[in-house]
Known about the structure:
One of its GO terms (biological process) is neuron projection maintenance. About 70% of the residues lie in helices and about 0% in strands.
Amino acid sequence: MSVRPIFDEAFKADLKEKYLAYKKLADEDSKNDSESDPYKSKYAAMEILKELRHLLLTCSTTSDAEQYKVDCMLGIVYLDEGILALDAEELNTGEELLMNCINTLNKYDVKKENILQPFREQTLTAKEYIDKAVRIYEEYQLKDEADNTPIDAPTLFEVEDASTNSTKDELEKLHTLTLYYLAQVYGALEDLFKSAIYCHMTLKRQLEMNDYDSIDWSLNTATLSQFFMESKGFKQARHHLAAATLILQKHEDHLKSLSSKEPADEAESELIASKWEIYNHRKADVSRCWAKYGILLMRDSRDRLIAASQGYPSCAADDTNVKDPKADTTPISQKLLDSFKFYSIEKDIEEIANNITDKYLLDFDDAKKVFLNVQKWLDEAKSYYTLEDQASEYVQIIQDMSELYRYLIFFEESDDRQAKMHKRRIDLLEGVVKQLNETYYLSVCQQIWIELGETYSEILNIKLDRLKDKDEKPTVHLITKVNNLAKSAILNYKKFIDSVALSKKDNRFPEEFVKPVLTSYYHIGRLYNVFITGDKLVKLENTKKSWEAYKFVAEYCKKNMKPEELKETEYSLSIDFADLLPVKIAKLTRELSN
Length: 594
């Protein structure tokens, strides 16, 4: 076969025709491939790219400029072939083609974000390529304006006239994609702080370039906020949640505008309805992220006040900026903290952000304001996630509500109001667990039974403390209340215990259940001892049941645990009471005999 010159008109026309044919197959026809032959069009596109590759490898050039153009086109062909091979799950072929792309372009150091190797989970190798792509971009930005006009594939194959602005925009989008890849790589390397930095940079560039899908951007920004709030960065978390809310509100306005017009046909009507469904779904998710923000702020505020009361000033710091979990006590620079902002919409989100504080809470008034906001957000989420359609998510929202009350109780000084809030928790949890199928939702039911046992016990403790403070004979009503609370707590702990089976092989509980089961037995042992009764026979029966619960814990621990594990308070106390209660039982038995 004769070698063809690259600037021969017939040769250029051949390249253009083949490139257009490849693009049609890869971008359009592949969408209509059947499930039985899903890669038909992509394989056809790969065949055309092979022909293009052969043409480029066998053409003749007369200057370095011509060779540069040929190598750029060849690099694009290798890249596109590699991507198609990966799409068709031909991993080895895809890897080989991408390496050919790198080798062809190495001498020019052109942009290579798409050359990533997740298919082998070669995270460090992938990071090397991405770091190089970032370095190339930064070097490119330093070039003179006249010397830094990018050229894209359509321009090289003379498919269309590409404007300077559009190719520059594409280059900027590719750099945004590079930053996204860096975020994924650092996430895979478990450097969550650096991953968060590059996630934010990606979102910030998408916003500034107006290159984003409103739903995806809002959800990704709200998701990133969870990293910040879990790292005690409530300032940054609130800022991101407010930004997510603003973009969702704009999207809602757009949907209202669409809905105000008469749809052209049924298909358009269904499309608009689908967009509303997606919006309502993601709005509920963002509301849940706001709720989590408030719950964590209440929890950390509680922990901070407890730490301060115990003389740990370092734990009681006022700073609510994000902390790098890998940097120990090293503070993050103000420049980096300032970079975690969306400056282009900063003023627009102020009103949204100011609905809730980003400072630690000091008293009940502070906590009540956060409580009411979280309650509102959880109600919004509950309007989408219903028990009938999304049972697991609905139950989680109810558990969040219970947790919200639990943290508010810490700030409440009145015993009566504390007991009422605990009762509200019980109503929420019992209301939902009664409606769940224990077979299908066993794990969730187990969580709720334990929480109910704990909550009934909390109210019981309030009543018992009141009895001690009054130092007078309890009324019949109070005795009945105390005994009913103890019975309810025991009932729920037993439901949990009965739901966990011992292994037939070694008569042991599954590892993840050992502590909760033994702790439940410990609480049952304590609860049988708090019943108030003047009947010594009933008192003897309750003491025996208490001893049986403690004895179970003691025997399980001695048989299955190492000495250092027995230092757990519940375990050591159970062992002590298992030894002491027989004396009390013997004494009660003698008294009854006499």
